[in-house]
Amino acid sequence: MFYWLMKYVVIGPVIKAVFRPWMVGRRNIPAEGAAILASNHLSFSDSIFLPLMIDRRMAFLAKSDYFTGKGLKGWATRMFFTATGQLPIDRSGGKASEASLNTGLGVLGRGELLGIYPEGTRSPDGTLYRGRTGIARMALEARVPVIPVVMVDTGSVMPIGQRVPRVGRVGIVIGEPLDFSRFEGMEGDRYVLRSVTDEIMVALQRLGEQRYEDVYASTVKDRLVTAQAAKAPSTRQ
Prior knowledge:
Blueprint: H1 2-10, H2 12-19, E1 22-24, E2 35-39, H3 46-53, E3 58-63, H4 71-83, E4 86-89, H5 95-109, E5 113-116, E6 128-129, H6 134-142, E7 146-152, H7 154-157, E8 171-174, H8 190-208, E9 212-213, H9 217-231
Parallel strand pairs: 1-8, 2-5, 2-7, 3-4, 3-5, 6-9
Antiparallel strand pairs: 7-8
């Protein structure tokens, strides 16, 4: 009830009036049944605009840090992420990654829509980067289609590091569902998982015509941090 109240009464109408989001390919989202919406990731606001523009309820897996803040700010952040259908996950790896997988499978097991960013993190420069294979494992284990989604101009409205969004129009392009039933029972094969993930990334690249680089976005971010640290003036006397 809280989700729908925020979407249609409190948050949704204001966001739609200010940013006038548009969508192409709405018919590609099934009216019922589970599916994974695989999206490029340009901005924090991607997780706001996509659920807002889809008629069905959907969930995103979000960093658990967003749900553990203290004080009024922590409460407000927690309420906002809950209102936009996001679920807390631990991204520290190992058993935490397995728990994240199970959380996503739980959403799909209830016949709902699950949003995933295959790149694993926001693109630092608007380029589409190599996908993580977790999405392939979920798709094969849950036996659900993967629907490619391209977010348009969200990186301009709210670039990385900016707290207050700029006013501008954003768009969403929904591609045709990808069927991976031919790989049923092969979710334990890492070569199959990589092949499925790459097919998803190719579909995203073709749909959005983004520049693609076959390296992880997290690796690029680490390089940028290292480069910035090297350029910073030394504080040693």
